[in-house]
Amino acid sequence: MTKTVPWVDGITIGHMLRKSAAVHADREAVVFPDAAYRLTYRQFDDEVDRVAKSLIAMGIRHGEHVAVWGTNWPEWLLMQFATARIGAVMVTINPAYRTSELSYVLKQSDAVALFLIDKFRKSNYLEMVTECIAELKTSEENNVRVTRRMVAPLASAEFSNLRQIVVMKGKPLAGMIGWRDFLDGGQETTDEQLAERESACKPGDAINIQYTSGTTGFPKGATLTHRNLLLNAFWIADCMKLSEIDRMCVPVPFYHCFGCVLGVLCAAITGATLMIPAEHFDAEATLRCIAAEEATVIYGVPTMFIAMLNHPTFDSEKLTSLRTGIMAGSPCPIEIMKRVVDDMGASEITIAYGLTEASPVITQTRTDDPIELRVTTVGRPLPDLQVKLVDPANGDVLGDNQQGELCTFGHGVMLGYYNMPEATAAAIDADGWLHSGDLAIRLPNGYYKITGRIKDMICRGGENIYPREIEEFLLGHPAIQDVAVVGIPDQKYVEEIAAWIKLKAGVSLTEDELRSHCKDKLAHFKIPKFVRFVDSFPQTVTGKIQKYKIREIMIDELGLDDIAKTSMA
């Protein structure tokens, strides 16, 4: 691939959008078909200004943290750019989080404001946040009427930093304000005030905190900068040969780097049209969007593509506009990739590998790579990123065809985990190399294969899940004495969660009771599918639980040998 000079290097996200809006002013920037929401680049940039002014009027200062919790809605997208424009740090919250996870993130991130939607499916976000903030302090200041210049500050015994809650979609509860009132509050903020705030932003400033689970049992906030995200998005787009003529169908969630970097920022940098088929992945809506909007680009994890290919409304003749895209999140079976190329027509689709801490993509295949490379490898490193493999035992650098831990150095490496210096030091070594925790080999042609994980992370349907987080949550149940969580092979999701549980003497607990305990506290994808109550665990002589033996026993018990062999191939 010809070396390209990234025009986004040295600027901020706000500046990038202004330049794209100037060049592509009358081109469609954003399309939400189901919400009847369409804006050109000029219109979208103006709306971002409007939201940015309202944030200033609310009192959000440079460097303060603003949490956003919701599905794929236009307001989420506006918040991504508006926070960046005024130098605030956007804290993205997984819409599948339940109360315990939400409570932890709001406190750990030091968020001063929370923007959320009212509900989605069976999740009532307003009720959950109210539960998290159980006791609101009342004072004369809290009862101040919302005006054009200010919003009522929120006081809470639990969340001393949280000042405001804004409901982006739906009717706010007492102590919260609605989106319209929020926007009205910014009408008296001047262009000069906004320009002053925007000019204070620097490319190396923190601009996003994305939470990723950790082996300590608690999510860690990967802190990313303007430069991290812009350069990563630039090179990702370059690998797909994106341009302003492309129309991108992006059904993956905004809260994750897959959506807000690979999707949103890639579109804005190239002047492409970003199309969001539904607030949450829906195979029929995605297929309808591709056909009706003549999408040239499609994103998804393998399970999404499987759902589309097997949906009753699938019709390859309606998908002839597709050219490229990204499949990521978990290994792609070769049969699925062939169907995406042959039946969906995305002949130039690419595979990407990375992690949130790397902004996120480290390696990616290119549009002209043979299909064999696109299903057996995760591509080559992005330009301006260095990758090496090291021996996990001694740190020695390894050569081709040797398995080692994949490490990366360069523009994608995060600043660190927010307020977690020890975890940061464990992830980024003294020389600035980010250690992925993934095992890989490098082929002589420079392509990489991911071969396993040093730690016991579970990858279920594109979601990275760390057993320790689930284990620590389950240990909070009064009936549980000890627990071990492992991943076992699954045909649909690649891996599913299994939990071995040892109960305390004299107590009882059923599988249904355990899942009921998890239901409103853990994201649905973290709830164990398989539960076994045991008297003991396989252990080493030093008392360490041998999880690989648990996994082997479960594979044998459930008859998953064939799936296990396929997943390890």
SSE blueprint and pairings:
Elements: H1 13-23, E1 28-32, E2 37-40, H2 41-58, E3 65-69, H3 74-86, E4 89-93, H4 99-108, E5 111-117, E6 119-120, E7 123-124, H5 125-132, E8 164-169, E9 177-178, H6 179-184, H7 191-199, E10 206-212, E11 220-225, H8 226-240, E12 247-249, H9 257-270, E13 273-275, H10 283-293, E14 297-300, H11 302-309, E15 324-327, H12 334-342, E16 348-354, E17 361-364, H13 371-376, E18 380-381, E19 385-390, E20 404-410, E21 416-417, H14 421-427, E22 434-442, E23 448-453, E24 458-460, E25 463-465, H15 467-474, E26 480-490, E27 494-503, H16 511-519, E28 530-533, H17 547-558, H18 561-568
Parallel strand pairs: 1-13, 3-4, 3-5, 4-10, 5-8, 8-9, 12-13, 12-14, 14-15, 15-16, 27-28
Antiparallel strand pairs: 1-2, 6-7, 10-11, 11-21, 16-17, 17-18, 19-20, 20-22, 22-23, 24-25, 26-27
Helix pairs in contact: 1-2, 1-3, 2-3, 4-5, 8-9, 10-11
Highest-level CATH class of the domain at 35-212: Alpha Beta
Coarse shape: globular
Q: In DSSP terms, counting alpha (H) and pi (I) runs of 4 or more, how many helices?
A: 18
pLDDT averaged residue by residue: 90
Computed CA radius of gyration, to the nearest angstrom: 24 Å
Strand content: 15-25%
Largest pleated sheet: 9 strands, mixed
Q: Would you identify the regions where 5 or more consecutive residues have pLDDT less than 50?
A: 135-157
In percent, how helical is the residue content? Answer: 25-40%
In the sheet with the most strands, the strands line up as 2-1-13-12-14-15-16-17-18
End-to-end C-alpha gap: 30 Å
Number of strands: 28
Kindly report the name of the CATH homologous superfamily of the domain at 35-212: ANL, N-terminal domain
The third-level CATH topology of the domain at 35-212 is Rossmann fold
**Computed structural class:** alpha/beta
In the CATH hierarchy, the architecture of the domain at 35-212 is: 3-Layer(aba) Sandwich
